[in-house]
TrEMBL record:
InterPro entries listed in its UniProt record: AAA_lid_11, AAA_lid_11_sf, DHC, Dynein_C, Dynein_C_barrel, Dynein_heavy_D6_P-loop, P-loop_NTPase
Protein name: Uncharacterized protein
Segments of skewed composition (Basic and acidic residues): 422-437
Gene3D superfamilies documented for this protein: 1.10.8.1220, 1.20.1270.280, 3.10.490.20, P-loop containing nucleotide triphosphate hydrolases, Region D6 of dynein motor
Dynein heavy chain region D6 P-loop domain location: 205-318
Ranges where the Dynein heavy chain C-terminal domain occurs: 574-858
Taxonomic source organism: Chara braunii
Length: 863
């Protein structure tokens, strides 16, 4: 299920069809009449469903609608659809990657697996043969619109999607949109605006209206305005649900049913225990006695506890805040209290207040829009909303006015008549320059209440808190009072000269509709990361729906003929895209993995060879690592063995085995493994390959002794390895471990250059730079290469030193995360379980630059 609120009844569907029969145009022949009904109903269905979908899911629905229609006509090949949804399953392709400079190994693997499908044979050989043409496609802004080399220029528009998925996965969403436009028409990607009047017309006293909310949205003001237009402003009764509000809401609804009033139940998700009572109330409304003007309006965030009967019978509308920096800023100037000219024009320090208020509007837009960039924007996507902005704006005016009053009281003098007057005119343009205002503006207090209480009250991750304060210092600073103060490096975004509220709105309207990443302090590659994230979400949702539609078995023919599953590379034979039944494939896959898994580590032998020593904590770390991996091996081995037996009818198929079966068919790591596993976002094939490499690394340590350079990504629990390093140093010098920290030194890229480890500390390898890169020549942190999301980090020497001896050279404390997701469960220390440590990396740029970039080191990539 994509979202629990996406539910529609058969009665609703039939009623929509009946309306289309009545509303479609007449025709002279039956065939023409049927064509008119088909077109009218298809678009009506699209519009009505889209109205209740979040923006992120509308393209998905348009594409699924298109493929279902084409599939009904036999124009979509099941194998090709399976490849689009799932991609390749298994190991590397048959040939060596011939274009490593522009084609990643993962992309090459996808190409090789696609070449096994009919119509794509020879694709892998075409890459080196027509490398120039394929390279142009790989760097083009719209690869789906570039003519493919022969014979692939004759592919259908759907088949071209598969090549885009292989070579330019970040452009899959754009390609899907073009596909829908080509087949269905542009109206099926241009989402109609939600009209309260149209929704109201479709409702009835027995048909409620439901706003499905998202972070930062609140439809109340719009609904109150609509009530005013319908002469119902005196007959609408909002009630915010929560503990103990159920009986009160029930009484209001009972009175409104008879009086013909409107009831607005806000935040239904906060009263899950009362939802069954609400369901009974709506079902028991008597159509014969209810007043025709009665309407029940509701707002709720997505909730699995929301009554299904109401979801299926109500008129649903999604309510989302505007997308884009410009639209967000424009909206902020229309929010209370900023929308009031009295508030905007009556500050005792008007120039300072307006400049800082504009900065606050910019901050409010930035903190929301950075969510679109995934972990590069925020480790955790926080639900900043209008309430944070409103209270911050009021405090800004209050703090400035109070400070101005205090300063004026200190600087009053007597005139010739003995009357008190201000020693200077605060409305004089020169009196509000940065030099004069340095003592008057309570910037530290403003940063505190905004960054710790208002917006900061939602922030739980330490690194996110650092980022929020970095953004705050850019807008709550004295320099913002200078003419045309830049809010971005390009200068496109700046603080305009003081003027009326309308003049600020006019300036905001001149800003780009779609902001470049630099507006948020991010590298241009952030757009690629965002597109990749969108593609991943889109295909993931498509996989869930496809699996549910086909009985959780991708690749199934709904007619029941030829029920096949795309086989992993390791079990394919004869180059066929599909082979064997699903059950046979899963059994073979389970056996294939079992054959690859090594025997458990011999812990007793390890403890004898590497005994617990006071002066060498690494021995304990090795034994603990082996123990953790043994547990994972036991779970994986047992689950695969039982599943194979269950599919052969030898044991009962349990719920856990059914779940494992389903995830194996989807190329996903079974949940029972993940419960005892190290954090990983890899698909099944890559996970197994990575697991085998980790096991081999430990085996090599056991056989040959402690490695000179440790592969930090291969540790099950790398924190214990880092702690052991500090502990060895602390015990050697007999100092408390909590007074020791890591200094660092960046070394060469090739770990083979270091055959012997350091006397103190450790050499580590295996980290990847995200949001930044490493310059081997300057030995400094540098910007990422355009189009390259991750770059290998050099070998690093982590040197334990007393905290007081840490170098104060110009460095960026770069966070290290276990996976690209970055977020995890927050520990009592305030750090996420995904967070490993911070490594000091030399840089010639201020640390704030890299904080805004979201620069970090990643131990394990997603694939």
């Amino acid at each position: 299920m994509i979202d629990p609120m996406y539910q529609y009844s058969l009665a609703w569907f039939i009623n929509l069809f009946v309306l289309s029969v009545a509303g479609s145009s007449r025709a002279a022949t039956v065939n023409q009449r049927l064509e008119h009904i088909h077109k009218h109903f298809t678009y009506s269905l699209y519009c009505n469903v889209c109205r209740s979908l979040f923006e992120k899911d509308k393209l998905l629905f348009g594409f699924l609608l298109t493929t279902r229609i084409l599939g009904g006509r036999g124009l979509v090949d099941k194998d090709e659809l399976t490849f689009l949804v799932m991609g390749s399953i298994g190991g590397p392709g048959e040939y060596k990657n011939p274009a490593k400079d522009w084609l990643s190994d993962k992309q090459w693997e996808e190409v090789c697996h696609l070449a096994r499908l009919p119509g794509f044979s020879g694709l892998a050989l075409s890459i080196p043969t027509h490398e120039r043409d394929w390279r142009e496609i790989s760097i083009g802004p719209e690869p789906q619109r570039i003519r493919f080399p022969k014979p692939y220029d004759k592919l259908s528009s759907f088949q071209k999607l598969l090549i885009v998925r292989c070579i330019r996965p970040d452009k899959v969403a754009s390609a899907l949109q073009d596909f829908v436009v080509e087949i269905m028409g542009r109206q099926f990607v241009e989402h109609p605006a939600v009209s309260l009047a149209a929704c109201y017309a479709e409702s009835s006293p027995n048909c409620p209206l439901l706003f499905v909310l998202s972070s930062g949205s609140d439809p109340t003001s719009g609904l109150l305005q609509f009530a005013y237009e319908r002469d119902m402003s005196d007959k609408i009764y909002p009630i915010s649900l929560g503990q103990g509000q159920g009986p009160k809401a029930a009484a209001i609804i009972a009175d409104a049913v008879l009086a013909g009033a409107w009831v607005l139940l806000q935040n239904c998700h906060l009263a899950p225990s009362w939802m069954p009572s609400l369901e009974n109330l709506t079902e028991n409304i008597n159509p014969e006695t209810v007043h025709p003007d009665f309407r029940l309006w509701m707002t709720s965030y997505p909730s699995s506890k929301f009554p299904v009967s109401i979801l299926q019978s109500s008129v649903k509308m999604t309510n989302e805040p505007p997308k884009g920096l410009r639209n967000n800023m424009r909206r902020s100037f229309g929010l209370d209290p900023v929308a009031s000219d009295e508030f905007f024009e009556t500050s005792k320090r008007p120039k300072s207040f307006k400049a800082l208020l504009f900065g606050l509007c910019f901050l409010h837009a930035v903190v929301q829009e950075r969510r679109r960039f995934g972990p590069l924007g925020w480790n955790i996507p926080y639900s900043f909303d209008d309430g944070d902005f409103r209270i911050s704006a009021r405090q800004l005016k209050m703090f400035i006015d109070d400070a101005a009053t205090m300063y004026n009281d200190e600087n009053t003098v007597k005139d010739n008549n003995g009357l008190l007057q201000d020693s200077r005119d605060y409305r004089d343009s020169d009196s509000e320059n940065p030099e004069h205002m340095s003592r008057e503006l309570p910037l530290e207090a403003l940063r505190y209440v905004t960054g710790e209480c208002n917006y900061g009250g939602r922030v739980t991750d330490d690194r996110d808190r650092t980022l929020l304060h970095t953004i705050l210092r850019r807008v709550y600073c004295l320099d913002i009072l200078r003419p045309n103060y830049r809010l971005s490096e390009s200068g496109i975004y700046y603080v305009p000269s003081a003027g009326s509220r309308e003049s600020y709105i006019e300036y905001v309207q001149t800003l780009p509709l779609v902001a470049d990443p630099e507006a948020f302090g991010l590298h241009p590659n952030a757009n690629i990361s965002k597109d990749m994230h969108d593609t991943s979400q889109l295909l993931g949702s498509m996989l869930v729906i496809t699996a549910a539609y086909d009985g959780n078995r991708p690749g199934i023919n709904p007619a029941g003929k030829g029920t096949k599953l795309a086989k992993p590379a390791s079990i394919q034979r004869g180059g066929k895209g599909l082979a064997g039944t699903i059950e046979d494939n899963v059994v073979q896959l389970a056996r294939d993995i079992l054959n690859k898994l090594p025997q458990n580590f011999d812990l007793e032998a390890c403890q004898k060879k590497f005994p617990i020593l006071y002066e060498e904590s690494m021995n304990t770390t090795l034994c603990q690592e082996m123990s953790r991996y043994n547990r994972l091996l036991n779970v994986a081995r047992t689950s695969l063995q039982l599943l194979a037996k269950a599919l052969q009818g030898l044991v009962l198929m349990s719920t856990d085995l059914e779940t494992t079966y389903r995830r194996l068919t989807l190329n996903q790591v079974p949940q029972v493994w993940l419960k005892v596993s190290y954090p990983s976002l890899k698909p099944l094939g890559s996970y197994v390959t990575d697991l085998l490499a980790r096991l081999q690394a430990l085996q090599t340590w056991y056989e040959r002794g402690r490695p000179a350079v440790h592969w930090i990504s291969g540790f099950f629990f790398a924190q214990s390895f880092l702690t052991a390093t500090l502990q060895n140093y602390a015990r050697k010098y007999k100092i408390p471990i909590d007074t020791v920290g890591f200094d660092s030194e960046m070394l060469d890229m090739d770990h083979n250059n270091y055959p012997v480890g350091p006397e103190e500390g450790v050499y580590i390898r295996g980290l990847h730079c995200e949001g930044c890169s490493w310059d081997e020549h300057t030995k400094m942190l540098c910007e990422s290469k355009l189009g390259r999301l991750y770059a290998s980090a050099p070998v690093m020497w982590l040197k334990p030193v007393p905290a007081r001896d840490l170098h104060t050279r110009h460095c960026y404390d770069c966070p290290v995360y276990r996976t690209t997701e970055r977020k995890g469960i927050l520990a009592t220390t305030g750090h996420s379980t995904n967070f490993l440590t911070s490594i000091r990396i030399p840089t010639d740029k201020p640390a704030s630059h890299w904080i805004m970039r979201g620069a970090a080191l990643i131990a394990a990539l997603s694939d």
